[in-house]
Amino acid sequence: MYLLSKTASIVKLLFITTVLLQGCTTVWKKQPCKTPAECAEKTASIAGEMQENILSNWSEPEGANRGLEVMIQTELDRNGRVLRMSVIESSGNMQFDKSAMNAIKRVGQFEEVKYVNDTTYSRNFKKLRFIFRPEAI
């Protein structure tokens, strides 16, 4: 799960996912990791790039109140294209929810995903949940 929040010109990004890499020895296709920690670090880096892509495409609606939160689930194909997405938990504000969905739609494809091995894709990137929340600093 990824928490995405943005305030005016300040972007605050919190990575809140558990990387499931027990026994994983590779992340990139044909490029072994030296340790499980290295695999986790590479996976977190990819997830961070994905979050940055989404945030750079998110136009938070004017007047989005602190306390709003929408959770969106996405399903990506093996090449990182968004196949499906749905609102899992609505903020109660349709405009806010739509802005979050539009941010993901604008990205369309997460290039990084096509370079990970099949195990990493299945465990970490096939189905993702993103939480969008306006944050006041």
From TrEMBL:
Main location: membrane
Membrane topology designation: Single-pass membrane protein
Keyword Transmembrane helix belongs to the record: yes
Classification via InterPro entries: TonB/TolA_C (IPR006260)
Location of the protein in the cell: Membrane
One Pfam family matching this protein: TonB_2
Entry keywords, A to Z: Membrane, Transmembrane, Transmembrane helix
Protein name: Energy transducer TonB
Organism expressing this protein natively: Spartinivicinus poritis
